[in-house]
Amino acid sequence: MHRVSIERVGSYDRELVRAGMERLLAPLGGMGAFVSPGDRVLLKPNMLAAKTPDKAVTTHPELLRAAIGLVQAAGGIALVGDSPGIGGIRKVAERSGMLAVVEETGAELVAFEETEEVAGSGMFRRFELARPYLEADRIINLPKLKTHEMMTMTCAVKNLFGAVVGTAKAGWHLKAGADREQFARMLLEIYLLRPPVLNIVDAVVAMEGNGPGSGDPKPVGLLLAGTNAVALDVIAAEIAGIPRNLLYVERAARELRVDGADRNRIETVGADLDEVRVPLRLPHISDVQFGLPPFLKNRLRHYLTSRPVQKDEACALCGVCRDACPPRAIEIRDGRLVFDYHSCIRCFCCRELCPHNALDVREGSAMRLVRRLRRGR
Question: Selecting from 1.10.240.10, 3.30.70.260, 3.40.30.10, 3.40.50.11440, what CATH number does the domain 2-275 have?
Fold first, then answer.
């Protein structure tokens, strides 16, 4: 059985978070069960972009502070690392409040720059992952619970995509991102290459709607923890009220029989699961990923799937979306963004990384027609 611990924490008050995390980890053996004296422990928060903590885009700094404190109390050497989607790690850490925590606690901020090739054992034969991620004695995963326009939810497994460095993320989106089922398999294979010894989820304030970068903060009032990232995601999705058929990573995990995907082998401890459910509003994305052969997916994608569009009043034409687009399907021309929707793979990296929240989502023309016909019945 995999054990997932759930603890109520009503705010990011420093003492509340520290005490809540101690209670959270107690049923799992406490931090001492995962960290030995002298261990170099890499704490992997969600550092998607340079956003302030109130935006709920990144792991909250007080969660990081509590985790660092418990690692150090167990005798470990705390390292904090990630590869942000946009901007350098120091800039993201400063804006998100994590840099101050690192400096105040004496932890070390580690940039994911150097890589090492690792052989895969599944669909994908090799990965280039951050060397500090591979060389740490222990990894503790600190994801934020958020909805996600491409994968429906991002939590423990998806957070480990941060071990892919910089522009290589765009390469993986281009290689696997046109098919969400394939992308989910890639995420699982990265997770299985180096599973964290512990996962602690920041769901005190989650994100709903058009996550992971443009959604709305949603108070949930919980911390979750477990040793198996897949099992933790299964329980997080139940709390968030997300239907299982929309969870690409969970679907892939069940099909591949990845350890942790069987709900019957997951027990929860701490707060009563039935009493802590807080449904999250999902992204408004229509898709045709499931149940169609590849040749039909490619032909119908442009007409049925949602697509990114420019918000004229908000767009600063900064070029971040253009530079982040894996298939290079965005240009700036005559003072506007121009999208090549036939090349667009609908990964929504442009929306995820836009610093101005200047991109919206519009349904494909055929899907809009279908909805109008349904309303007319």
Answer: 3.40.50.11440
